[in-house]
Amino acid sequence: MKTAVATIIFALLFTATNILSQTIDYGTLQAEVQNHLCDLPFESFQIDLPQIPTRTYNICDFGARGDGHTLNTDAINQAIAKCAAAGGGTVLIPAGLWLTGPIVMQSKVNLHLARGAIVTFSRQRELYPVIKIPRRNFEAHPLIYGVNLKDVAITGEGILEGSGDAWRPVKKSKQTAQQWKNLLNSGGVVDKKNEIWWPSQAALDGENYLRNLRANQSRKALSPEDLQPARDYLRPNMVLLINCERVLCDGVTIANSPRFALYPNWCQSIVIRNVKINNEWWAQNGDGIDLSSCQNALVYNCTVTAGDDALCLKASSAPPTEQPVVKNIVFSDCIVYHGHGGFVVGSNTEGGIRNVLVNNCDFIGTDLGVRFKSARDRGGLVENIFIKNIFMKDIVGAALYFSTYYQEFTQTPYDTTAIIPVTATTPIFRHIVLDSIYSIGSQQIATIIGLPEMPINSLKISNGVFSAQQGIEIKNANDIQFVDLGLYSNSTPLIRLKQCQDITFNKIQFDQQHLPLLQVAGLGNSGIVFRKTEIPSPERAIVLDPNIQPDVVQIQTE
């Protein structure tokens, strides 16, 4: 009798605990949000949290089976629809193996993945038809999709597994010999150059199909049916939310995404915390957390491994707008293990980006550390960006990277002297502050390359230490300050400048055994100053092109 009573009590306690775990702890969450939004280096802003009723709908009550074989698409979407129709609540996915197709979110719904829940998206590509995405273009149906929603959440300690390897191409250059052999044996097709593996012939042929289709028919006249043959090529994003307000993503793991993993577009009041993104480093376009044209967002305590940009801001807008479409964004306390960049701005910045803080993040083994990229045909104003307390190790390329030649980057060498008229889509990077940045083991300390018609302007890097195989390269930049830094590299010269004005090095420490320290080349250089920096043998430390006057570089002891 005592055993039976104890069993009943335990079951009641377990049920109560499970119900409580599904409820958003608004008190704790609000306190954490407020803590991250206080003392910002720009005007403060507010994030409104989603308000989700406490009622719960278990997907098992709608016929879902967590056996890893039953397709639960209808059951999950029916539970979401029922929950929304009742005024909102939590749709519970309990522990188990849940196979599904696309999930469609609705307002006032919290999709909660309990600890032990693994939601695997089906590898049957026909379940993901091509659809028209608002403000975007035709794409394969996202795995989790929501449009024009208010109060939406994805929470819990469960896993969303996207079966991305059934969609993504793989470059041979990113595989070991054995991995490439295993990939070929798994099926799929390889391009004529034997450089890229595709999961299907339709995926391989999709790019040419789209090119020919659009050449013979205006894009406005295209229909989803026209694009169906290119579905495999137009692989889906994993979590895509469009025009949503009050969004919370908390605790979940998002793995093996076909394309971008977590991708809010044109959303406001967003909190992303305790999220883990896990894409293989060779995952083509496998971005981690991308905020595109979003405002009032906080991303914190997240861990990202990505096949492309890890923590990223994009500013898409057609036509370009006077007010920035990306504004009031905070990234804090995040870790990135792999990615094309740890924190990335761009490449599309035409909508404008303003008021961003990135604080207390670790980047380990990323291709680049802090990365700003844009190009002449996709640029806008990026300003008031503050990045501090960043710790980086073994960055493959440059720890700090700024370039407005993104598309031309594959052309070697590319022309940084050709000037064209400034337009509405000329990229502008200005008023950017990097403070307390530390990096060891990178290939290069910094690359800063602007346009001759629009130099990178007003950039300050202070209070840090960098060690790398190569030093600093700057082209087409104005008003750049390096203050109280240790800059260490065995390569010489440590600093290369070309077509630069008002570049200041103040209280710089470097290995004085490796000279020259500075080389200046090109036209239009002026105002290059070293302050409070000990420079032995200035005649050996400073190398100027023959056409550059000696007074272009000044050494000031006070």
Descriptive report:
The chain is mostly beta strands and about 550 residues long. Among the domains are: about 1-35; about 310-558. It is about 15% helix and about 45% strand. The chain contains seven helices and 39 strands. The strands form three sheets. It has a 34-stranded parallel sheet that branches. A three-stranded antiparallel sheet has the order 13-15-14.
Tell me the number of strands: 39
Helical content stands at 10-25%
* Major β-sheet profile: 34 strands, parallel
The geometry reads as globular
Short characterization:
The chain is mainly β. Among the domains are: 2-37; 308-558.
Which characteristics define this entry?
7 helices, 558 residues, mainly beta, 14% helix, three-stranded antiparallel sheet, single chain
Topology summary:
Elements: H1 2-22, H2 26-37, E1 56-58, E2 67-71, H3 73-85, E3 89-93, E4 96-100, E5 103-104, E6 109-113, E7 117-121, E8 130-132, E9 138-140, E10 144-147, E11 150-156, E12 159-161, E13 170-171, H4 177-185, E14 189-190, E15 196-198, H5 201-216, H6 224-227, E16 239-242, E17 245-250, E18 253-255, E19 262-265, E20 268-273, E21 276-278, E22 289-292, E23 295-300, E24 303-305, E25 309-314, E26 326-332, E27 335-338, E28 341-345, E29 353-364, E30 370-373, E31 381-393, E32 398-403, E33 428-449, E34 456-488, E35 495-510, E36 518-521, E37 526-531, H7 538-541, E38 542-544, E39 553-556
Parallel strand pairs: 1-3, 2-4, 3-6, 4-7, 5-10, 6-11, 7-12, 10-16, 11-17, 12-18, 16-19, 17-20, 18-21, 19-22, 20-23, 21-24, 22-25, 23-26, 24-27, 25-28, 26-29, 27-29, 28-30, 29-31, 30-32, 31-33, 32-33, 33-34, 34-35, 35-36, 35-37, 36-38, 37-39
Antiparallel strand pairs: 8-9, 13-15, 14-15
